[in-house]
Amino acid sequence: MWAENGVRRAAGSYSGGRGVLRRPSAWQRGVSPECPSKLQPRSAKPGLSKKQKAPPFQPSARGYWSTWPAYAAGQTVLRNHKPCSAPEERTHGNEQALLAIPKPQHLEQLESYLRKELQTLDPTKGISQEVKLQPYREIFEFFIDNFKTYKPLLSAIKKEYEATLAHQEEMIRALEPLKVMVATVSEECTQQILALQEKEKVEINTLKQEKLHLLKLIDSMKEENCSLQTQVERLQMSVAEEYTRYLEECSARKLLLAKLNERQNEQPEVKQEQVQEVDKGEDVVMLTLALKMARQDLTKAQVELNAMIAEYGDVVPRRDFESLEKKYSDLLQETETLRKDFDQLHEEYGTLLEVHRETAEDRGGSHTPRPNWAKCSEVIRGGEERWGRLAKGKSSNQLVDVLLEEIGTRVLKEMNAFHGWGKGDKVPVYLRHEGEVKNKKPTKKDVVNILKDIWKEKMAHDQQTGEQSSLPEFFLSYLQKKYGDASAVEWSYTLYEYMRLCPSNHVMSSFYEILTGKVAEEQYHNQNQLISDLQKELAACDSSSNGSLPSEQFRMALIEAFPLKRRDAIQELVDASRFSLDSDDDLIDYRSLFKEDEEGNPEPFVAKLRSQYVSEKQEYLQELKNSLGDVTEVNADDLKAAFCRIDPEINDQTLDAYISLAYQVREEQSDQEAVPVDTVLERLRVGDVRRVRPSTRKGSTTDLEGD
């Protein structure tokens, strides 16, 4: 009761301002305003306007505001108080009394109204905090409207909160452009970082290639130095032997000349004595004896002369000795020069190694350990068996391509559609479509079979018409003819994506390069013709027709089929042919070397043959670039001269074809303007450019045949 009277006095004194009680309002006199239960829940439209009034408040039945649960607790204490009872009993009785007092009706109505308003909001949709806050705002406005005494204070509180919320919303709207700008700047920084990384990769690859080139140059210089040192030692031994023989011959000749002079001096005296004796009438017996002694001396002199000839017949004349000595001095001087060059190269190589090490340290890079490729079998479909088949005879770079293919094909199988490229003129004719295109999701085997069938149909069509058709147009017409216009675009996009993501598969990669114009179609046909000619050559060498050849006979067949290849290239092919054989087995099953698996992947021998085809073409173009020198532009005459310098036996027809390819004109046109060297090399790289005569470099098959 004291609490109730205190509330009434406080309300009256605050409203009057001077402690005088004013006349109670309608709800204080017991007049009940409209009950909130009569209000219907809001419609599905979220939120109410600020002008809409909150539901009227229902006062208590006693005519003044209830202070429940404080009011109920106070009444319970007064009603159940027993002075003589124990504390535990009083506490238990108070709790029972508190539970017996019901919650005020107006409070239940307000809570019920709030629950209904919140239930009208769909939680599955995105609900903003402003819409969710609206029911609480309405309840607060209800308190402001019904608490006349506290209305100014509550209105001020509401106004400050509304102003703060509006200020926060303005700050959020002001920060939205900054958020977009931060995202844009972040993306630009990411692109710049990626560009710098790509640039560093190119520089690192250039340094690595330069390092490998210098290592090869140093190895060749070392070998040449060892060869020259061996020749010098042999020449030194030969000169020493010749010098010894010369000294002996010189001494022998001097002795022989002295004896001959003595003989010549003795003969006139003997003849004079004989004449004098004959004149004096000496005895015939004495003359006979003198003749006998002269014959004995002659025989002895002849024996000594023969011995001299036998002992000093191989003595070198002085002029030959002097010539050898001069040649030896020249070789010695040349060796010293080469030694100085080698020392200088070694010093430069050490400097380059130091610069490379410092560069690597500055960039924070370190040598990457060789990856454990066996782990890939755990995530590749097919397990260890399929991974072993895919990784057979491949380098680390090729294994990375295989992994990218597996990842790319797996992503392709999960995609249901592709985005069309549009119908612009720059879009290839087989990809001109707008909107989404369905993914047909074929297997690699299906793609390879379709591409092989396209090649077969195109070759038959070109042979029938007598001219080569465009592969992109024939590709589209083939798909339209086989699958119809509606499905042709779907198959075109599907095959294009599979070819783009499978560079290690020869059928897909070669078709993709020719389809996109990176390589001329002649290169594909010439490679196939090269493989076909090799099969015929091997079959011709197989007299027993059992499909096997000894390794040496197989090597000679390769030399006969590829007279332009060097010895190391022939050895690489021989090693690739023995990849799946035991080292002790001398027979090579050449028929199995040309087989393909179900996905069109060839054996290591054919793969090596095709890679050599490409590398020989690149080497030929590099020689052409070196022959052109440091010029930036070249005309047709200079380009012809450069081709003739590196390939003297090239015929006029082939030379005209290369010139027309380089300048994009017909063969009969001449006097072309100068074109940048890089443009010429790029156009020649697209076409099928090959060497006509064997290379003069060390290690060619011509050297092998001579050896």
List the helices and strands and how they pair.
Blueprint: H1 2-16, H2 70-80, H3 87-100, H4 105-119, H5 129-146, H6 151-280, H7 284-312, H8 318-362, H9 383-390, H10 396-414, E1 417-419, E2 436-438, H11 444-465, H12 471-500, H13 506-515, H14 521-541, E3 548-550, H15 551-561, H16 567-577, E4 587-589, H17 604-628, E5 633-634, H18 636-646, H19 652-663, E6 675-676, H20 677-686, H21 701-706
Antiparallel strand pairs: 1-2, 3-4, 5-6
Structure description:
This protein folds into 4 domains: 114 residues, no CATH class; 171 residues; 104 residues, no CATH class; 177 residues, no CATH class. Helix 4 packs antiparallel against helix 5, helix 14 packs across helix 15 and helix 17 packs antiparallel against helix 20. It is 67% helix and 2% strand. The relative contact order is 0.03. With 707 residues, it is mainly α. A two-stranded antiparallel ribbon has the order 1-2. Strands 3-4 form a two-stranded antiparallel sheet.
Summarize this entry quickly.
It is built from 21 helices and 6 strands. It is mainly α. The protein folds into 4 domains: 2-68 and 103-149, no CATH class; 192-362; 415-518, no CATH class; 530-706, no CATH class.
